[in-house]
Amino acid sequence: MHNKEMHQLLLIALTTVALTAHAAPSTKPRIMIDPGHGGTDTGASLNGAKESEIALLVSKRLKEVLVERGYHVTLTREKDESLALEERAAKANQIKPDLFLSIHLNSSNDSKAQGKEFYFQNQLQADEESMFLANRENADLHDSINDRTERSGVRRAESEQIPALSIEPSGTRNDVRRILEDLARNDRVKRSSLAAIEMDRAWSESPFAARFNARNSSRTIRQAPFFLVTHVAAPSVLVEVGFLSHKREGARLQTDEYQNALALSLAGGIDRYFQSVK
User: Is the dihedral of CA 129, 132, 137, 141 positive or negative?
Assistant: First the structure.
């Protein structure tokens, strides 16, 4: 393809994006919250405390707060049940939320490790620690990546985000469509990073961080190939709300007071995110 033809394709694609850009909804956005693990997959555990149970409690409280603020909120699971990652992604891709948030608890052999971490889809090389965590969270995946991707419904969801093109010939139409798909994915990653940044800031600037002496470190926002943030066709963030393995933080994570603080902080970050993308 000549440079002139490529230039024309880019102009067509950018014009289409400008005409069909994702605008902030006139009503409150739709949010899907995914409580990590569940059923026989308890996730991290410590002295009887289970990641799957605490993640569900935090998710339900967050839903209550967001619904009170007028958001439309759905959970991937409402009870302690097993749910494959592909099923969670498929639910999200069917509903097409404006934001997808997966709630988890962390654990480490380092007894000093604590704080929150916010992950979104990686475009750069992930660090070793992030790769280890992503592999651990993706551990229930056994089939081929193509099979898992097909079951997640992400390809169809991504395709439906691209407007119908009446460009001829068909080769040109396909080229423009590929450009639009790349632009849409880049926009999704950008929005995911903004959501992670705003949720991190909301906690750091909240009275809860000082009250519980639980400020985040400087490496709380990361990119990693988690299945969910990669296979949901919406801005997506996976949040590790704390380390169950840390003595003080692990104890706090089991209390209603701290779970409520987490929910209020996350909701505040979500508010800030949607205000920033208007």
Answer: positive
What letter would DSSP give residue 221? E
Structure tokens at 195: 């959501």
Where along the chain do its domains lie? 28-155+189-276
In whole angstroms, give the CA distance from residue 274 to residue 45. Answer: 34
Mean pLDDT within 48-62 = 97
Residue 80 exposed, middle or buried by CB count within 10 Å (0-12, 13-18, 19+): middle
Q: How far is 92 from 153, CA to CA, in rounded Å?
A: 9
% pLDDT > 70, the chain:
73
| Encoded tokens for 123 | 């475009």
Give the mean pLDDT of 14-31: 61
Nearest to 39 by CA among 76, 80, 75: 80
- Per-residue tokens: 33: 């919250």
* CA dist., res. 270 & res. 264, Å (int): 10
Give residue 59's identity as a one-letter amino acid code: S
The answer to whether 258 and 252 are in contact (CB under 8 A) is yes
Q: What is the C-alpha separation between 62 and 73, in angstroms, rounded?
A: 9
User: Distance from CA of residue 262 to its chain's centroid?
Assistant: 16
Give the whole-angstrom CA distance, residue 119 versus residue 124.
Answer: 13
CA distance 196 to 266: 10
Share of the chain above pLDDT 90, in %: 54
d(CA 61, CA 191): 24
Residue 33: phi and psi, rounded to 5, are: -110, 130
The CATH number of the domain covering residues in 28-155+189-276: 3.40.630.40
Peptide bond just before 163 cis, omega within 30 deg:
no
Q: Which structure tokens are listed for 75?
A: 């959970």
